[in-house]
């Protein structure tokens, strides 16, 4: 094995480590099958290397650990491209005398190929146990296939990201490539997201009660990623595609739609003190979906950065030709220098004192662009007593249908 090949394999293992979903996938596999060891393996003609591991049976092979490749069934899967599932080695006519179960003391085994780079074999997603387990079912096999597809998609996306980063030759090119990458990534994430949600729905009816919490977490994480993808796509539309296209109508359902957003947020955060006062005395000519998105982003921001024990208040009115919408929360005030940059892209909540954010820093930027598309304004006031974000626009509508740079 040359130094170059060894370096490439180490890079592949490091790429697997960057996939946040892998530990959760391995945990779901063990909980659902009852098996004690699950792994993502990088498999070549000469090497079998553990790239991701969950070991509940003290098998003793961690990340970076190797098996002699010709002692594994994965070696055969690489050549055949076919998955292998064994409920009970002792009762399996094909594998009862196979050298791999004998060597490693296995009674149950399942392994599914992982592909990347346009159907190039990467390795396997596998699970083993010294006791029999039921894995030869449609539900279990489909789950493994979905997870293997998800891992392969992640590997492709991360490799494209690495290639893009290596190609940045100047600050201007870096900015251009970042925006193009976001647009591409936003679309490419749809397929693995669909796989995650489909797998979660499949598991919901099959997983044991202890595993249901993990399945619910998968769904919540997938929905959160979906929200991030939407933010990236909106950012791309504004910066690359010319801006938002608004569907403005004199909407008589806007009040109910806004109230529904508040109700959804209240249900998602039942521990928070969330109030609303929404009274629209006259119709508002607007794109109702975008106004609801504006409110959702503002509410998410308030719930994330506001005091956990403080109240959050939503107010909306339409009278005398003006529509106003505001969200205020208690908590640490926003520093003046941060206030000046809040509506710029990639400004995160972590810029605030003692706060961390898992978002991309696009939520308030999108809020400002929605406001601008409607011919309205966004303002922020932050004092030790409260932080208030306010949106104002003419309720009779605005002729500008797009916004962007």
Keywords:
single chain, Heat Shock Protein 90, alpha+beta, 5-stranded mixed beta sheet, 21% strand, Beta-Lactamase
Overview of this structure, please?
The protein is of the alpha+beta class. It folds into two domains: 3-238, GAF domain (Beta-Lactamase, 2-Layer Sandwich); 249-394, Histidine kinase-like ATPase, C-terminal domain (Heat Shock Protein 90, 2-Layer Sandwich). It contains twelve helices and 13 strands. The protein has helices at residues 3-17, 21-33, 74-80, 99-104, 138-166, 171-188, 190-204, 209-239, 254-268, 288-305, 336-339, 363-373; strands spanning 37-43, 48-55, 66-67, 84-86, 108-116, 120-129, 249-251, 273-280, 284-286, 311-319, 322-329, 377-382, 387-394. The strands form three sheets. Strands 3-2-1-6-5-4 form a six-stranded antiparallel β-sheet. Strands 8-10-11-13-12 form a five-stranded mixed β-sheet. A two-stranded antiparallel sheet has the order 7-9. β1 and β2 (48-55) form a beta hairpin. α2 runs antiparallel to α8 (209-239) and α5 packs antiparallel against α7. The longest helix is centred in the middle third of the chain and has 31 residues, at 209-239. The termini are far apart. 35% of the residues are buried.
């Amino acid at each position: 094995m040359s130094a170059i090949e060894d370096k490439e394999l180490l890079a592949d293992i490091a790429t697997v480590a960057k996939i946040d979903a892998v530990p959760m996938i391995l945990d779901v596999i063990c909980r659902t099958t009852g098996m004690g060891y699950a792994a993502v393996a990088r498999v070549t003609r000469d090497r079998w290397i553990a790239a991701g591991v969950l070991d509940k049976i003290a098998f003793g092979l961690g990340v970076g650990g190797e098996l002699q490749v010709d002692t594994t069934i994965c070696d055969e899967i690489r050549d055949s491209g076919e998955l292998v599932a064994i409920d009970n080695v002792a009762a399996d006519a094909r594998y009862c005398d196979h050298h791999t179960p004998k060597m490693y003391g296995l009674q149950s085994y399942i392994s599914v190929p992982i592909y990347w780079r346009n159907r190039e074999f990467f390795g396997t997603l596998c699970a083993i146990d010294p006791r029999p387990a039921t894995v030869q079912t449609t539900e279990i096999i489909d789950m493994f296939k979905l997870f293997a597809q998800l891992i392969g998609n992640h590997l492709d996306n991360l490799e494209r990201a690495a290639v893009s980063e290596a190609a940045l030759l100047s600050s201007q090119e870096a900015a251009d490539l970042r925006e193009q990458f976001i647009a591409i990534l936003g679309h490419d994430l749809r397929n693995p997201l669909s796989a995650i949600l489909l797998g979660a729905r499949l598991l919901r009816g099959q997983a044991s009660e202890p595993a249901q919490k993990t399945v619910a977490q998968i769904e919540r994480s997938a929905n959160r990623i979906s929200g991030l993808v939407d933010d990236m796509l909106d950012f791309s539309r504004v910066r690359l595609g010319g801006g938002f296209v608004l569907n403005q109508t004199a909407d008589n359902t806007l009040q109910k739609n806004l109230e529904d957003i508040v109700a959804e947020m209240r249900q998602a955060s039942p521990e928070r003190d969330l109030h609303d006062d929404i009274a629209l005395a006259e119709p508002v000519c607007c794109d109702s979906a975008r106004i609801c998105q504006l409110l959702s982003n503002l509410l998410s921001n308030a719930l994330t950065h506001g005091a956990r024990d403080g109240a959050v208040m939503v107010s909306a009115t339409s009278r005398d030709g003006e529509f106003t919408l505001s969200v205020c929360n208690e908590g640490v005030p926003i520093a003046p220098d941060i206030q000046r940059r809040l509506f710029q892209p990639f400004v995160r909540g972590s810029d605030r004192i003692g706060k961390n954010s898992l978002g991309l820093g696009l939520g308030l930027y999108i809020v400002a662009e929605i406001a601008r598309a409607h011919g309205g304004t966004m303002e922020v006031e932050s004092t030790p007593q409260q932080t208030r974000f306010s949106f104002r626009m003419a309720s009779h509508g605005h002729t500008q249908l797009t916004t962007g740079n």
